[in-house]
Each structure stands twice: as C-alpha cells, then as structure tokens.
Amino acid sequence: MIPAEFEYQAAESVDEAISLLGQGDSDAKLLAGGHSLLPLMKLRLAAPSLLISLGKVQGLNGVQRANGGFSIGAMTRHAELAAESDLGVTAHAAGLIADQQVRNRGTIGGSIAHGDAAGDLPTVFLAAEGTVTAQGPNGERQIQATDMFKGFLTTDVGADEVVTSVYMPALEGYGWGYEKFTRRAEDWAMVGVCALVKSSGGTCEDVRVGLTHMGIMPLRAGATEEALKGQSLSPESIANAADQVAEGLNPPGDLNASPEYKKHLARVLTRRALTAAAG
Ligand SMILES: Cc1cc2nc3c(=O)[nH]c(=O)nc-3n(C[C@H](O)[C@H](O)[C@H](O)COP(=O)(O)OP(=O)(O)OC[C@H]3O[C@@H](n4cnc5c(N)ncnc54)[C@H](O)[C@@H]3O)c2cc1C
After folding, report:
1. Which pLDDT score is estimated for 199?
2. Residues 229, 278: Cα–Cα separation, whole Å
3. How far is the CA of 144 from the centre of ligand 1 (A)?
4. Consecutive 10-residue runs of the chain (279 residues): their mean pLDDT?
5. Which residue, among 70, 71, 74, 39, has the nearest Cα to 55 in the 3D structure?
6. d(CA 16, CA 275)
7. Whose CA is nearest to atom 37 of ligand 1?
8. Pocket lining: 96 vs ligand 1, CB cutoff 6 Å
9. What element of type H or E holds 92?
10. Residue environment code for 63-87, b if the CB has 16+ CB neighbours within 10 A, otherwise e
11. Pairing verdict, β 131-136 and 162-169
12. Strands 50-53 and 29-31
C-alpha cells in the first residue's frame, strides 16, 4: 500500500525537531528507523501530515557508561545494542529482533516510544526498570519504566516531545534470561519473557518478570514475582512461580496463537527464563 501524502523535514537538532513538532498540525510525527511508523502509514493506520526525521540530529547515538548503568542514545540501532555484550539482556533481546535489515534501521528510542506490546526492548526496559529522558518545549524530564506504557501503542511520551536517551541500570548481581517464541526466527514474538533474578545463598532476593505480547502493552508479571521473592530457588519454586504468570491476564488472540495457547507459552517460557536467570 502507498501511504497518504505527507510533508517531510529533516531536523538538524533536538530543538529544531521540537519546534517542527509545534509547527506541524497536531498529527506531526518523528521518524527514527521508520520500521514501525512506515508500515502503519502504508496500511493507512497512521496518516501524519508531517514527518520529522531525526536521522541528521547529532548526539543521539551510542552507548555510554553513566550513573552505574548505561545511557543509550535514542537513535542507537538494534544492531549496535546487540553488539554491546556489556548490556546483557538488552543486547541479547536486541539481537533477537526480526532480521539484520530491521536491526540495522530500528532504534531503541523508536521502539520504546512506540510501545508495541509485541516489541522486545519495551519488555526488557520495563523489567530492568529503566528511565527515558524526553525533551519538549518546557525542557527535559525523566519517565520511569513503570509510568511509560499507557495502553495500545500509547506511551507517556508527549506529542511535542523527543526521546533523547534511554537509561538502563547495569543490573549488577542479577542473572537474566529472555525467552522469545516465534514460528520463524525473524518473526515478532508470539510471547516473550524477560526474567531478572538476584539471589543470595540460594534465596531469591529480587525478581522481575516482563512479558511481551501478553496484553495490549508490555506487562510485569506481578503474581510470579510475588511467588518467587524470598523463596529458596529450586526447580519446584521456579515452576510454581511460572505457573502463576498468566494470572489475571487476558492476552489477545491472533492468527498465530489463541489466548489459551499464549498463556501456556507464557508459563513454559517464564520457567525457562527464570531458570536461566537463577543460574
Ligand atoms: C518486518 C519487521 C519485523 C519486526 N520485528 C520486530 C521484533 O521481532 N521485535 C521488535 O521489538 N520489533 C520488531 N520490529 C519493529 C522494529 O524494532 C522497529 O524498528 C521499532 O519498533 C521502532 O523503532 P524505529 O526506530 O523504527 O521507530 P519509527 O518507526 O521511526 O517510529 C515509531 C514511533 O515512535 C516515534 N518515535 C521514534 N523515535 C522517537 C523519539 N526519539 N522520540 C519520540 N518519539 C519517537 C515515532 O514518531 C513513531 O510514532 C519489526 C519491524 C519490521 C518492519
């Protein structure tokens, strides 16, 4: 399909991008890798009158150590993340996104600002309790992961704001696992699970579980986390916690998987991800 007509501007700076967002009609959109926005435009599910490219803006690329974690420029591509093994589960999940072409174009800022329930990085960001820095006409603000995802393709990033960076904690002392179930290697997740476990003397001190494609937005698996926290880590306690992962969830069915099948997948993948994270 061919997208509806639109104007195009390439911003030279974050300030210019913000100013262009203000000048456009209220439906102006930022363009990062274009690998979520352009498919929506081609399907006529989005028809922005103005696209503002961030491709020429300096200072939005790369990964730096900062405040005990990593500050990742919003325009950092999935392929660059996948090559940074220090990023742990973030690198691993980025390497599982689609195919090399998509990973060469898609960005972490675009992925998190878009907030697709089937996206891999939003789930990792939620489980890792990361922070987004967004800049708008009134300056800069931080958005915590717990406040980020608001509903179907809806995030806390304002229509007049640019995500400039994503902070990921280093997660020292945490083991991790990310399990993604797909029909073909390059597909979107039917279900994905990110597990982070911190243990001491065989006891689970902290556990965080994020879920991909189990609802209308990325989710935390609260029942599983509660069931495992403070418990001795064993195959039985992990299986018991994983069995509760779908509690209270109503995942939408699609061509690939019914809601019941997704719940089954979530239980199996959670057990595997927790086992990997528990070491
Ligand atoms: C064939 C295919 C398969 C895919 N498979 C997967 C997969 O398995 N897993 C997965 O996670 N993803 C997958 N994706 C999506 C891919 O990861 C996207 O690149 C990503 O979701 C969006 O990043 P982007 O840079 O392309 O954003 P864009 O498409 O450019 O933008 C997406 C949205 O975010 C907004 N936006 C972008 N950057 C910013 C910013 N800095 N500040 C504020 N708003 C911003 C845009 O305005 C737009 O609304 C797939 C895409 C394709 C085409």
Report:
1. 97
2. 12
3. 20
4. 93 97 86 97 95 97 95 98 97 98 98 98 98 97 98 97 98 97 94 98 97 98 98 98 96 94 98 97
5. 74
6. 47
7. 110
8. no
9. helix 89-95
10. beeeeebbbbbbbbbbbbbbebeeb
11. antiparallel
12. parallel
With beta carbons less than 8 A apart as the criterion, state whether 60 and 72 touch.
no
Quick check: 217 and 152 in contact, CB under 8 A? yes
For residue 138, CA distances in Å to 57, 131, 171 come to 20, 19, 32
Q: How far is the CA of 234 from the centre of ligand 1 (A)?
A: 38
Q: Partners of 7 in the beta sheet?
A: 50
Cβ-contact 166, 157 below 8 angstroms: no
pTM, two decimals, is 0.97
**Cα 223–chain centre separation:** 21
> Looking at residue 24, what is its pLDDT?
66
Tokens matching residue 242: 């994983």
CB of 30 closer than 6 A to ligand 1?
Answer: yes
Residue 59 Cβ < 6 Å to ligand 1? no
97 lines ligand 1 (CB under 6 A): yes
Q: How far apart are CA 156 and CA 169, in angstroms?
A: 20
Sheet holding 174-181, edge to edge: 174-181, 191-200, 203-212, 219-220
**Position 145, amino acid:** A
* 8: its two tokens: 């195009």
**pLDDT at site 23:** 85
